[in-house]
Amino acid sequence: MKLERSYIILYYLVLYLSLLVGFxxxxxxxxxxxxxxxxxxxxxxxxxxxxxxxxxxxxxIFYIPHxxxxxxxxxxxxxxxxxxxxxxxxNLHFSLLLPFFVGLSLxxxxxxxxxxxxxxxxxxxxxxxxxxxxxxxxxDNLLAMVFLxxxxxxFVKYEKDKSNINNILLSAFFLAITAYFRPIYTIxxxxxxxxxxxNLKISKKLLFYVIFxxxxxxxxxxxxxxxxxxxxxxxxxxxxxxxxxxxxxxSVIIFYFxxxxxxxxxxxxxxxxxxxxxLFYIIILAFVIFFFEYERSYSGGIVLKFSNxxxxxxxxxxxxxxxxxxxxxxxxxxxxxxxxxFDSILLIILFMLEIDGVIYHETYDPLIxxxxxxxxxxxxxxxxxxxxxxxxxxxxxxxxxxxxLAAVIKTVGLN
Length: 415
Hints:
single chain, mainly alpha, 2 domains, 72% helix
């Protein structure tokens, strides 16, 4: 379906202006981004006031669970632009590379022509309270997502032309930058390596790719394992059990899938939540009820918060999260073929992202949108993008707007 180019430009211009308005008023409806920046600036003053080497070697003294590379990035911004509002504004515009490269990737992957309505899809990021707050207050996770979108752009180019090794190396290079800003994203290399391995087999290109990655990883390996400066990276891991992480993550993941699956909702539910799977559902529910343990007043995801807010307990969460686990199994694991295999790997990686045991929406937002638009090969998502129209767009924007409004109400209510 086509849309007038002038309408597309006007639409993005309005969204861009909304970001500038948000910047002017210090928007942080995701909660905590402004505080995080203040914490990072305190770290700059305590550790990096002398020089970068001193800060790196003493990072474990005042460590926080954020990469020192991100702190150095802030240091350079502060040194060059001095005034906080100026470097934050620069960072905001740099963050806009995320929807830009997702748009470029969509154009290559789906062969989008001029005025294609699917050029509106990257706008979903600008509706995200996490993307907006990350842009405005300079967030390490969002910066990592920018570099990941560039990495995936070259990966999409590789999928179209497997003979060009430059796309493989550039994808690896930007994935490495992603990981240096947010080390947990190192596990995404599993997905890319398996793709390259199964396509390239044992070849010179694969060997060159492995050696290139080895050299990219050397500085991090030396810093974390040889120098032993790693409290900031490992002190927060495995704070909750496996079933707690899976149940919480599943509920958040399915939440973000809703607008993309809603048109197939009837057939998905019919095949998943039926009498044949009822025993399977009961077993999952029993495990969740027995093993779930989450005593934190913060985080946990929208379903857990809803359950506690409206029912005063976790029972609603138990029922919904168990159904979410069953849905994920049906969509990604029930029929593992070649394409489904890579989707299954991505799903396992999504679960692994929360091995610290504290479930935040920002872990999956905007990451999950990038995966849906560019990497997932599941038939539901592919069909959604191929048949994207005004109706699909309306449902998507309505969902995003409601979630954004809920974030506004939550923030205003807390204040």
